[in-house]
Design brief:
The protein is α/β, with parallel strands linked by helices. The chain is built from 4 helices and 3 strands.
């Protein structure tokens, strides 16, 4: 909750982070070697900067600083697919489901 952005690899942490609606940078310098994608076109499901070198990393940082978020709409569309709820009521839903 205290971060301005997330830098991650192929980890699933970004699915949860999308709820915060903040920029995400994906380090994909080993993209061709990585195996195990769930999706046929994995880059289409990574709503953020695709970082393969230092210059792209630096650009991502500067974009955050300048509040230049060109992936906001893509992130919002994918967030609706991956996160059914984003209303801070999940604990109540779990309690109700478990009949506690």
């Amino acid at each position: 909750a205290e971060s301005d952005a997330l830098i991650t690899d192929y980890s699933s942490v970004y699915y949860d982070y999308m709820i915060l609606d903040r920029p995400i940078g994906f380090t994909i310098d080993d993209f061709k070697e990585y195996k195990g994608y769930v999706f046929e076109e994995p880059l289409e499901y990574m709503p953020g900067a695709h970082i393969t070198n230092y210059n792209e990393f630096e650009k991502f940082i500067f974009d955050i600083f300048k509040e230049n978020d060109q992936y906001k709409e893509k992130r919002r569309k994918l967030n609706k697919i991956f996160n059914k709820y984003s209303d801070n009521k999940n604990s109540g839903r779990i309690t109700e489901f478990l009949k506690l």
